[in-house]
Design a protein that fits this description.
heterodimer; A: 69% helix; globular; disordered C terminus; B: 5-stranded mixed sheet; 5 helices
């Protein structure tokens, strides 16, 4: 078999997976789950979530080893289930990218508000989101080594600051690190959110010489994210007062200041900014390419497949940026960021359950197709993974979202989003499909 | 020459005749391997200074396009878009995403949507 002239290295698989999982909104997810964990056992919820997500990573590894494609879930669900389910799930999935961008914008706005209280946070959100969109439209890309360094910078910073913080914790406090409250399962469900996006490295499978690099990269990244955010959760719960942790939109800045004073504050400001900008950039670049491909197959309106002279899908990029900005404005104005965290955790958990089911289905449908990675423990571990994540998805979707009243708004939101996507696929997509064309008839369209 | 070889020859000619493609790809120097997975057969296409040509093997490829022979013939003849078989897993393309996207744009510019 011929090898590619240029291929991505393992470190890029690790940094991409870890970087996509490490959004700035994770700091708020940690603060939220800490409130449910009881005692100071938020770190334990993250650790257990990390172990469970590793099981999900095994399933994604087998799927990407079977069909290493940038279209990823679109291909896997189509092969393992049906075309319609594939389209619906893909649309909902790309929606979570917009949620994460909007949620990170919320954090970014509050970081700037903490630094420069006189300037509205929304202005910073609009400017920085606009800047990243403009850079993407110009075809300017962040170099691979910058992404690698940025991922290491975030996770390394969290480990260092957290360890320094824990060094000052008096011995009598440590027993609370294992106290688990009655809502600990909710904390575990929200813990899944800390890892959201780790599997978005799978669309890069075509760029690696060997598709086995992706599983290795994902497993290593999950280990790094678990350690870094687990330590952060433990340090934040040990050092910060419970009320301060729960009510602040920037707990990472509070921890930095508590540990290293002004230096720590600014250090965490830089960490937050680079992390949010990476989320903007990675999210817009990945999702805009997905929208382009979806528009090319007429799942979405053809206008979204239009490219500029730098071969960037301009309409798709602008549509995503506008969508994220509108959502960010709504979240910033209302402060209901927990809704996005809960919806994100629920959608991802359901997706992990679906991935487990796809592994089972494809082992049955395509038993002889070559797989460079086979998930161990089939079928029982896979079935267990599916059941656990389906349960965690329900748990996250029914967790309080900050909106008063008994209605489980995250569940309503997920159901409405899925229903809308289903209606769109059934009613609108058939009208977008082009007529079959004859062979060998060049048409020379505009691009 | 095989049906796929003939098809690729016509595809390369169509690419080289298209002035817009020549302009767009003037700096795109890539070696593409087209490899059917149901036949012991390899085809190489070199894009250089805006001109495409079927060539002999000349080092490691920048892009590898794989699929059943009939799928590859269908795509490179313009009978179907690459998107449909790509999304169903019947067409696999290995290489950088930018190059994969450019290949899709080439097909789009020659054959339309």
């Amino acid at each position: 078999m011929a090898g590619l002239k240029r291929a991505l290295p393992l470190r890029t698989a690790v940094s991409t997976s870890a970087g996509l999982a490490s959004a700035a909104i994770n700091f708020l997810a940690v603060a939220e789950l800490a409130g449910y964990a009881g005692g100071r056992s938020g770190w334990l919820a993250i650790l257990v979530a990390g172990v469970l997500v590793t099981l999900a990573a095994g399933n994604f590894s087998e799927l990407t080893a079977l069909y290493p494609s940038a279209a990823a879930i679109r291909v896997w669900i189509r092969r393992g289930a049906s075309d319609q389910l594939s389209m619906v799930a893909s649309l909902v999935y790309v929606g979570t990218v917009v949620f994460v961008i909007a949620a990170d914008a919320f954090v970014l706005g509050h970081v700037f508000l903490a630094v420069l209280p006189g300037v509205p946070g929304l202005l910073w959100i609009a400017v920085l989101l606009g800047l990243v969109t403009l850079l993407n439209l110009r075809g300017i890309k962040v170099a691979g080594w910058v992404q690698d360094l940025n991922g290491l910078f975030l996770l390394g910073s969290l480990v260092v600051v957290s360890v320094l913080a824990l060094g000052h914790v008096p011995a009598p406090h440590w027993h609370t690190a294992f106290q688990m409250g009655p809502n600990w399962i909710q904390a575990l469900a929200l813990g899944v959110f800390v890892f959201v996006g780790f599997e978005w490295v799978t669309p890069l499978a075509e760029e690696f010489q060997d598709s086995r690099v992706i599983p290795r990269g994902m497993f290593m990244a999950l280990g790094l994210v678990t350690v870094a955010f687990g330590l952060f959760a433990l340090a934040a719960q040990m050092v910060l007062p419970a009320h301060g942790l729960a009510s602040s939109p920037v707990p990472q800045l509070l921890l930095g200041r508590a540990v290293l004073g002004g230096w720590g504050f600014w250090w965490m400001v830089v960490v937050s900014l680079t992390t949010a900008m990476t989320t903007f950039n990675g999210g817009l670049a990945t999702a805009s390419r997905f929208l382009y491909a979806a528009a090319r197959e007429r799942l979405l309106p053809p206008a979204l497949s239009r490219l500029n002279d730098r071969l960037v899908p301009k309409n798709a990029l602008v549509a995503l940026a506008v969508g994220a900005l509108v959502l960010a404005v709504v979240v910033y104005a209302t402060g209901v960021y927990t809704l996005l965290i809960n919806v994100g955790a629920a959608v991802e958990s359901f997706m992990y359950a679906l991935a487990a089911w796809l592994v089972l289905s494809l082992r049955h449908r395509e038993p002889h197709r070559r797989r460079t990675f086979r998930v161990p423990g089939l079928p029982w571990v896979t079935i267990l993974t599916m059941v656990v994540f389906a349960g965690l998805g329900v748990g996250a979707a029914t967790t309080a979202s900050g909106i008063p009243g008994p209605v489980p708004w995250p569940l309503v939101f997920v159901a409405a989003l899925t229903g809308l996507a289903w209606w769109y696929v059934r009613r609108i997509v058939p009208q977008l499909k082009p007529p079959v064309r004859a062979a060998g008839t060049p048409t020379g369209p505009d691009v | 020459m095989s049906a796929l070889g003939d098809t690729l020859g016509r595809f390369a000619e169509a690419c080289s005749r298209n002035q817009r493609l020549q302009q767009m790809n003037r700096d795109w120097d890539r070696l593409i391997l087209v490899q059917p997975d149901d036949a012991d057969d390899q085809h190489w296409v070199r894009y250089h200074e805006g001109v495409a040509a079927v060539v002999a093997k000349d080092g490691d490829p920048d892009l590898i396009v794989e699929g059943a022979s009939d799928v590859l013939v269908s795509i490179f003849s313009g009978a179907s878009t690459p998107t449909e078989p790509y999304m169903s897993g019947d067409l696999r393309v290995r290489g950088s995403q930018d190059d994969v996207m450019r290949l899709d744009v080439i097909a789009l510019l020659i054959w339309g949507e």
